[in-house]
From TrEMBL, chain A:
Chief location of this protein within or outside the cell: membrane
Known catalytic reactions: a 1,2-diacyl-sn-glycero-3-phosphoethanolamine(in) = a 1,2-diacyl-sn-glycero-3-phosphoethanolamine(out); a 1,2-diacyl-sn-glycero-3-phospho-L-serine(in) = a 1,2-diacyl-sn-glycero-3-phospho-L-serine(out); a 1,2-diacyl-sn-glycero-3-phosphocholine(in) = a 1,2-diacyl-sn-glycero-3-phosphocholine(out)
Name under which the protein is recorded: Autophagy-related protein 9
The keyword Acetylation is annotated on this UniProt entry: yes
Positions with biased composition (Basic and acidic residues): 1-10, 719-730
Top-level taxonomy: Eukaryota, Metazoa, Chordata, Craniata, Vertebrata
UniProtKB/TrEMBL annotation, chain B:
A GO cellular-component term linked to this record: Atg1/ULK1 kinase complex
One GO process term, biological-process aspect: autophagosome assembly
A GO molecular-function annotation: protein kinase binding
Short name of any one Pfam family annotated for the protein: ATG101
Organism expressing this protein natively: Cottoperca gobio
Cellular localization per UniProt: Preautophagosomal structure
Name listed for the protein in its UniProt record: Autophagy-related protein 101
Gene designation: atg101
Membrane-spanning parts: none
InterPro entries registered for this protein in UniProt: ATG101
Plastid found in the keyword field: no
Keyword Chloroplast assigned: no
Family: Belongs to the ATG101 family.
Keyword annotations of the record: Autophagy
Length: 854, 218
């Protein structure tokens, strides 16, 4: 037999079938759960706590603060009861004499009643016992909460130290953006969230602000009954903490609420099928909660009074003027809040706006009152001066009965009067002031512009910016009013609420159910009058009012430069930024970009806006508002008025450029991710840059907000004038100024923002479709005019601003937060307005089901 | 929320319920089980072998593969037959859902009990139909077999994705990840629960728990 030489050979290696587990089978090394932070169950709560701990400046501060609060509460209650029951005031007032053997001096302990008398007095007084019981229950509640919190936050502390590698001592000086960058970083390593490999900033925001976004959207769409028109009075806003608590109880977490848990809406609410039944159920729940509120009313009332007494008496005593001071109302906070804006961002914005806002309000002091106040102050002042002079001469005057008290009273009287006398050096320039305010608060109804000097505007602004005294008063009457609002106003809206939650909830992979507005998708929720004309496909019902989507998007993109939005959004942002930058740059070419680096941006805005250039721009605006073309020059001049301010833009740009260069270097050199560098984990300079950047971010946002408002104004003016030209007779139906409603009770105007909520209580599609028609035509016209304006900028490439470091990274193919696929599905579903019942059985757009039905 | 959830839906005849459920649950568990770990020295372990077994269904034209572990089979069978009984006793239109939840235990400090954190939940929705005659039954028998085949591929696709799985534990932690009570196989910790029709709302106890938790967290 021939010997074939083949390549096939017998394997030399001896393989013996050793039974498994005996010899040396495959050995594995367990990774072990090195960190306990992988796969956290309730990420919502987790991120909220991480945020809270950051806001409270670390564990120790929080702990101490809470302990002191508990002690303070105990002290205040105890002390009040003691003062009321255990002091013999006759001795203090010297109406009764104590006969001491050793000395004639009255000592404080003499005035105390003996323990048994004291306790007997307390026991006899039912009211005191009632108060004591309530405070006791409250205190115990606080104590339990405190202990629970300590346990929870101890874990978060460990998370900061072990996972984020931040010590508690450096926490107060770290910005939230930095913390967030680290969280994004460690997700890769620990997989906190198991759905995706990477976490985005938006995911974190969505989780922290899930319910707040819903509330903001509901206020934006005027769904919540917080505005009331009492007969004989003008429209007023009533929104208190108690009411807010009840809303949240009903919608989000109370028994039988719409949400199953923190992150998902109950499935039946996602289907349109039985919306009427669900609305009935919601209505009856609201009724029951309203009744419960009514029953608990006395308890809550007492509690509110106690609470107000405890928390404000000391303040009022210390500075009586504080009651005259103003604060941003709760409604204002909701109205002015962007989607996806954390508390500290909102607060810093509003605090910056506080000064101009109070200045603005002070412009409107009644001259009559001023005259009276001046004279009263004069007389009171002279009396006071005499009394004080006498006292200085001989202090025995003080011992004359009521002299001391009249000195005090006169002092208070003068303080009050002074608050009615305007600052001598103040100039009446409401329009400018309002503009400065707008730069910080970013939102205001359209009709305020140009009407800043009117009393109505002031009244409406005072809804956002109310007297502290009014605030406290509202809180006090809240227990009585809340059940009424719940039972009579909110209950009627139950169907709309059900529809709202169904239409505006999207499920985002890895986040859960969120408010679709919070996705800040221009296409889905943009408003054609706010620069997203042509891009938006939203119906009137879906458009966010006041340009909320657009402004929120800008705000989020500016505060989170690392965020990578989906493609179209990136386009929108870069385009807008380019335009703003160009306008600003065109005006300030003569000023050196860095020349203003030392000065504070905020004061810059203020100075600038008060400067003479604004005046001309306003003047311009007045003249040219009628003609269509002049609109853009108006905007340009308005921006030019901001020109030196744009130095900060440059600064930010150059900083950003430096930043990017280090980033790219680091990336090229060591291959570290850009985020590590930007989070400043390596060097302090990184930290510094991020801090500086976040400070300038607010200025940049202010400029953008002003610009967008300006453009919006032109656009709506343009539309208005066009309409008067084209169809002068039927102009009323097409209300080109969306928010005219807020103030004008004029029935001719079709209230745009109220379109859905108020006019369609019963399923009928007539009014909506009508107004829809008119506004879409408007939108197209707006788009057209907009395009004319844009022409100059569209072809300018982004390289001239590449240095600004926004790093318009080519948007990745991966849709973040499930934009692409969810978005489309959601859009399809949005078409089912509540009026339609044929599509009732359409599946919810939020199904992430991998199933095929058999 | 921090867990994947997959939904499978099947429509079967009453007598097929048990087999269909067994087929799907076993298929999932086959991929979510490993051999017993034998920890050697500090830090290493070897994995034992797992046998597989083909099971032919009586009422469906279908054969599925399961882990050849009688113990595991017994546990699953018990759960499924409970589900089947509940389904037949419910008297309603025969809708039910059985879910297989994989979870991980996390040790907590003293005042709190151990947390069970799910990382993957498979929900199988069952729709029971009544068939009129033998011919329809025959068709159904084949059709359900086909559909189950699709489901199995579906399951395998999901499992093939590289998604989060608990990390391999060290010896001390193995009980937190794997169910080590069985002799011959070691599936990830799992829990089988079922629910007949969509009983509305969460139970009172969970609502109460949430209420308390929420007031505390305020």
């Amino acid at each position: 037999m021939a010997h074939f030489d083949t390549e096939y050979q017998r394997l030399e290696a001896s393989y013996s079938d050793s039974p498994p587990g005996e010899e040396n089978p495959l050995m594995h090394v367990p990774e072990g759960a090195k960190s306990q932070w992988h796969h956290i169950e309730n990420l919502d709560l987790f991120f909220q706590r991480v945020y809270n701990l950051h806001q409270k400046n670390g564990f120790t501060c929080m702990l101490l603060g809470e302990i002191f609060e508990l002690v303070q509460l105990l002290f205040v209650v105890g002390f009040t009861v003691f003062l009321a029951n255990c002091v013999d005031y006759d001795i203090l007032f010297a109406n009764k004499f104590v006969n001491h053997t050793d000395s004639s001096k009255v000592t404080l302990p003499d005035a105390f009643l003996p323990v048994d008398v004291c306790s007997a007095r307390i026991r006899d007084n039912a009211f005191v016992i009632f108060v004591l019981i309530i405070s006791g229950v409250f205190w115990l509640h606080r104590l339990v909460k405190f202990i629970y919190n300590v346990c929870c936050y101890w874990e978060i502390r460990a998370f900061y130290i072990n996972a984020l590698k931040m010590t508690m001592s450096e926490l107060p000086y770290a910005t939230w953006q930095e913390v967030q960058a680290r969280i994004v970083e460690i997700q890769k390593e620990h997989q906190i969230c198991i759905h995706k490999k990477e976490l985005t900033e938006l995911d974190i925001y969505h989780r922290i602000l899930r319910f707040k976004n819903y509330m903001v959207a509901m206020v934006n769409k005027s769904l919540l009954p917080v505005r009331f028109r009492l007969p004989g009075l003008e429209e007023s806003v009533f929104y208190t903490r108690g009411l807010k608590y009840n809303f949240e109880l009903i919608f989000f977490w109370g028994p039988g609420s719409l949400f199953e848990n923190e992150w998902s809406l109950k499935p039946e609410y996602k289907r349109g099928g039985n919306r009427l039944e669900l609305a009935d159920r919601l209505a009856s729940r609201i009724l029951w909660i309203g009744i419960a509120n009514l029953l608990l009313c006395p308890v809550i009332l007492v509690w509110q009074i106690l609470y107000a007494f405890f928390s404000y008496t000391e303040v009022i005593k210390r500075e009586p003027g504080s009651l005259g001071a103003r604060c941003w109302s709760l409604y204002g906070r909701c109205y002015l809040r962007h989607f996806n804006e954390l508390d500290h961002e909102l607060m810093s914005r509003l605090s910056k706006g506080y000064k101009p806002a109070s200045k603005y309000m002070n412009c409107f002091l009644s001259p009559l009152l001023t005259v009276v106040a001046k004279n009263v102050a004069f007389f009171a002042g002279s009396l006071l001066a005499v009394l004080i002079a006498l006292t200085i001469y001989d202090e025995d005057v003080l011992s004359v009965e009521h002299v001391l008290s009249s000195i005090t009273l006169l002092g208070v009287c003068i303080t009050v009067c002074r608050s009615f006398i305007p600052d001598k050096h103040m100039v009446f320039c409401p329009e400018q002031l309002l503009r400065v305010i707008l730069a910080h608060i970013h939102y205001m109804p359209d009709h305020w512009q140009g009407n800043a000097h009117k009393y109505e505007t002031r009244d409406q602004f005072s809804q956002l910016f109310q007297y502290k005294a009014v605030f406290i008063l509202e809180e006090l009457i809240s227990p009585v009013v809340t059940p009424i609002i719940l039972i009579f106003c909110l209950r009627r809206k139950s169907l709309e609420i059900i529809d709202f939650f169904r239409n505006f909830t999207v499920e985002v992979v890895g986040v859960g159910d969120t408010c679709s507005f919070a996705q800040m998708d221009i296409r889905q929720h943009g408003h054609p009058a706010w620069m997203s004309a042509g891009k938006t496909e939203a119906s009137i019902y879906q458009q966010a009012e006041d340009g909320k989507t657009e402004l929120s998007l800008m705000h989020f993109a500016i505060t989170n430069p690392q965020w990578q939005p989906p493609q179209e959004t990136t386009h929108f942002i870069s385009q807008l930024k380019e335009r703003v930058h160009r306008e600003a740059a065109g005006a300030s070419s003569d000023t050196h970009p860095l020349s203003l680096s030392e000065s504070e941006p905020r004061s810059l805005v203020a100075n600038l806006l008060a400067g003479p250039s604004t005046l001309t721009s306003i003047h311009f605006g007045h003249d040219s508002s009628l003609t269509n073309q002049a609109g853009l020059s108006d905007g340009a001049s308005a921006l030019r008025s901001l020109s030196p301010n744009s130095g900060s833009l440059h600064l930010r740009g150059s900083l950003n450029a430096a930043h990017t260069s280090t980033m790219s270097k680091a990336m090229a050199g060591s291959g570290t991710d850009a985020r590590t560098v930007s989070s400043g984990s390596s060097a302090w300079e990184g930290q510094l840059t991020s801090l500086v950047l976040s400070e300038y971010a607010s200025t940049e946002m202010s400029i953008h907000a002003l610009y967008m408002h300006e453009l919006h104004k032109q656009q709506s003016h343009g539309e208005l004038s066009r309409h008067t030209w084209h169809r002068q007779d039927s102009d009323e139906s097409s209300d080109s100024i969306p928010d005219e409603v807020r103030s004008e009770p004029n029935p001719r105007h079709f209230p745009r923002s109220h379109t859905f909520p108020t006019t369609v209580p019963s399923p009928s599609a007539i009014p909506t479709s009508a107004s829809c028609m008119s506004s879409t035509t408007l939108g197209q016209e707006g788009a057209a005019s907009n395009r004319i304006g844009q022409q100059g900028f569209t072809n300018s490439s982004s390289d001239s601003f590449g240095a600004r470091g926004r790093v318009v990274k080519s948007a990745r193919g991966v849709p973040m937060g499930g934009w692409a696929e969810e978005g489309q599905a959601a859009r399809r579903h949005h078409e089912t307005l509540p009026e339609e019942s044929s599509e009732d059985d359409m599946p919810p757009h939020i199904h992430k089901v991998n199933a095929v039905c058999v | 929320m921090n867990c994947r959830s997959e939904v499978l839906e099947v429509t079967v005849e009453a007598r097929q319920v048990e087999e269909a459920m067994l087929a799907l649950l076993h298929t999932i568990l086959l991929h979510r089980s490993s051999g017993k770990f034998h920890y050697k020295k500090e830090g290493t372990y070897s994995i034992g072998t797992v046998g597989t077994l083909d099971i032919d269904c009586d009422f469906i034209d279908f054969t599925f593969v399961r882990v050849s572990s009688e113990e595991l089979d017994r546990v699953i069978r018990k759960a499924v037959s409970e589900f089947k009984d509940a389904l037949s006793n419910s008297g309603s239109d025969g809708m039910g859902q059985i879910s297989l939840e994989f979870y991980q235990k996390k040790k907590s400090r003293w005042p709190f009990s151990d947390e069970c954190i799910p990382w993957e939940v498979w929900s199988i929705k069952v729709n029971v139909v009544n068939l009129a005659n033998e011919q329809e039954r025959q068709i159904c028998r084949e059709k359900v077999g086909e559909k189950l085949g699709e489901k199995v591929i579906n399951v395998v696709e999901v499992i093939n994705r590289h998604e989060y799985l608990p990390k391999m534990p060290t010896q001390s932690e193995v009980d937190n990840v794997f169910d080590t009570s069985l002799k011959d196989v070691q599936p990830y910790l799992y829990k089988i629960t079922y629910q007949i029709t969509d009983s509305l709302g969460t139970s009172v106890s969970t609502t109460m728990r949430r209420l308390i938790k929420d007031t505390l967290a305020l």
